[in-house]
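Listing S7. Sequence submitted for prediction.
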Amino acid sequence: MTKALLASASVLALACSTPAWAQSSSGGPLIEELIVTATKREESVQDVPIAVSAFSEEALRAKGIDTAGDLVQSVPNLTFTRRSLRTNFQIRGVGAQLVSTGGDDGVGVHHNNVPLTSNRLADAEFYDVERVEVLRGPQGTLFGRNATGGVVNVITNKPIDTFDASITAEFGNFDSLKYQGFINVPLGDMFQLRLAGFALQRSGYTSNTLNGQDVDDRQIWAGRVTLGFTPSENFRGFLLWDTFSEDDTRGARKQLCAKDVGLTSVGGVPTGAAQAAFTQGCLPASVYGQDVYGTTNQLSTFTGIIARQIGLQATDAFAGKTISRDLREVEVYGRPIYRPRTDIYTLNLEWDVTPTLTATSLTSYNENESYSRGDSTGGYSSVPFGITPFTPTGTLNDPQLGLTDRLMSESGGTAHNEQWSQELRLQSNFDGAINFNVGGIYIDYKASSITYVATNAATAAVRVVQPAAYVDPLREPDFTGHNYFVSLSEYKLKSKAAFGEVYWQATDDLRVTLGLRYTDDEKWTRGSGSTLFTPGRGPNFTVPQSVEFQETTGRLNVDWSPDLSFTEQTLVYASYSKGYKGGGFNPPGVVALGLNPTYEPEFVNAYEIGTKNTLADGRLLLNLTGFYYKYQGYQIGRSVNRSVYNENIDAEIYGAELESIWEPINNLRLNANIGYLHTEIEEGKVVDTFNRAQGDASYIYANSTNGGCILNA
């Protein structure tokens, strides 16, 4: 077995934005510091020996941070994208670079300290939130199994023992209406109730030039009920229900492609009529360049391949088209559908066992479901069907897609997941030099999803090629419906972990933290092979796969609080931590090619130094951080044979961050965030995603079969 040495790839990022602390409501000379729970105990953000960006409710409002994506403006080295309509945070270049049913994110998303394996943070807006904390760097010891990049923790407002209420409304263009508010009511001496709600309605920002309709509108509703209770001085808790739902046309696709016309020769032999088969679909191109506004390569789409094989069109289905340069203009059949729903139930109990020992129980159940549907043709075909045995009238009436005279394809699916979690912790607050925070957590997560594709090209082909198999079946996106590609996957995770940290106050100004975590992940999956040309056939499940990973990780941190003449307060810290993220499964499609059915866990050894300073009589906060990561088995995904193959490589990351607030005079505040990031791919064995000939002049194009359909070049 040999390993390929990849050419080094570097990324240099410099970002300047606003900072991550609360704003002083008094407008006085001292900058207000925010109390956070980054170490699962209350501390000032300036006393925490971790790179933390924290935002109070007031700061979120002042900085215009309405959604999770807005956080990138105020947190150095944080990026945010939507991946398959899901949240994908990356901190210091670490996030989710793979596509897998059992893949873990690299940044843990928490809701009131509850880890969410799946979440809808990308869809919702922040409302009635006490604070948002972003912890940068591996946080696996206290926060979880997949926090190799860091943690985003949303803390909602809890009930208080006095009456309070608020409601706000916003009106804007595109018929935008947004409401949010809360009411807090004390119920005697023992209970407190807080109700909060949010609603957003607006028209679409994007125009569908094919039918003149607007898409990408919003119809969002969210609510939260929190019951607080304090039956005694040493016992307290809260019970919370958080719900979110949406019904809109989010998700319309904009085709961005610099078309690859294919190889003119292989090994010196002209490809001739087969040239279009030797193509990777689209050439690498920047989305900021003009070349990217090209048309779809017909042979890079499932529908287009079938149409070309059976001769529905004499030329490229997208020949002669021009694509609008306006990213707010799309060309899609029908209206996209996007309907997610999320419910989170949390019970938090705290018991002061003694004046110096506190026990915490955190129980949570959350459920997510979604349905999506939309055009996947790749653009409106400029070439109509010819008069063929498949389309004798030049048109085709598909039972799900309707009557049309050109290529049309629709994809969509449903997804459902649920999670139970239970965390128990015991934390000390001794007067002596030694304190601790120990606990355990159990997570039981289950997920299932169905992906389907309906295409009129397949309908035409099966009516002639396999007429006995063809029926006009039901129109539902499941195994009984009119679908020519259907894939189902099921996934289960059971994760157990024991963790703890010991804090040694060596001197008045020197503290040492040692943390350890043992994690046991059990993963199980099964799926169905794709079903082609066999309506109503039912699922053909693959053999279930299961893997188990156990790993011990931890961190060592030393922080020093010197008394310096030129600062009011200074904290200097240095840390080493080991992060871990479990492996998982590759899709059946690539396993059938002889590739590995699983990918390995990833590990990171992280080194960090930093300092937090308060200067100029409290008018200046200046925080600096430097870090170096050494990755072993960094998980990445790449396209192989119209599927995704996940594999492991080694990587190196280093960088620096600066966060600062300066208030030179009352009511004038200057903020700065600067992040520098260098990433480098090192050694790894990878699959060439488009190896057309391996340098062999005797290249042979092999036919493939799937569900009775033969795809010939």
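Caption to Listing S7: primary sequence and predicted structure tokens for the chain studied. The first strand starts at residue 10 and ends at 17. Residues 265-330 form one domain.
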